[in-house]
Task: structure prediction
Amino acid sequence: MGSKSKKNRVFGRSLGRHSRVRRGRHLGRPIYRIKKKSRNIKKDILKIKIKKIHNFYGTTLKKHMSNTSIYTAFSYGDNFRMRILKVKDLSPKGYRMMNLDCLQSHVSEITMHVCLCVEAMKVSSEGKTPIKLQTEVRSLGLASVMMAECQGCFKKFKFDTSPKVPGSKRYDVNVRAVWGSMVTGNGPAHLNELMATLNSPGLSQPTFTSIETDIGKWWHSILEREMMLAGQEERRLAIDRNDYHHEVPAITVIVDGGWSKRTHKHSYNAAGGVAIIIGKETKKLLHIGVRNKYCYICGQNDNKPHTCFKNWDKDSQSMESDIILEGFKQAEEKHGLRYMRVVGDGDSSVFATIRGRSARVGKTGN
Result:
């Protein structure tokens, strides 16, 4: 005797011939149409649309506040539409990160007001707090905009918990949080889990990714500048010791490379590789290169615009030699140097590539 098996079982939805109709009821925000009978052939339709908004303390809705949702209605245009508004409690609760310079500025402003406001002094003489924190006006990631109110003259004070990065729209605390996540190998999920434990607001995925992209550009520009300065220093030292090759300053470099996974004597199929060239005298970086055989977004057959890091379609073993050869070819144009002596780990393929395709190398050492 065969047994029946339930198909397309989805939690919260029943089976049957009307399952398609029931499934359609859960798609998107519900819009209810109220039809009013009329003598005319055309039917007048009243649309009701559910929408979520944030409520700020100190508005006209404050007297209607409760622990549950608040419902209000608005009408505009030819049709009457009712918006069911769900109020979010933005009372100042939990923990916030406060910059000490911002704190000093806000404390000075509030203190000066209390000293000069007659009504605030009367409230203080009664043993009450003259300034009261009313609400958190906005939560911008880990940064917040708070609002305090004088209990005497009811003047409001807005203050930020973090300054912005000079020349940028980013808040400093958000940039530092993403920077710390990047250098420790974490992502937005780890950061938000930590902030949730502290009862503090976190960063959304798009904001984290956007800041991460900006930080990557900053790192790249600083890296390029430091490599140029290192090349200038190596060139100066070569000139001081009178070390030339056909009237071009010559130096000794240290080269090495690596892959994204260990492939010693088996399965040389790493998806990524990196190699560097370091000046022997300064011990500073002169060249760095990365080769990637895979891009996640391209691998998903997604045609959306993105920064593709795939730049290699050959075997993984030749990644290191190609990067180092690129550094040798760019040495004279980029730094005004020639790499005439090489110190490496004895990789025969790298030295063979350099000797065969670059005329700016002399002695080699292991």
The mean pLDDT is 78.
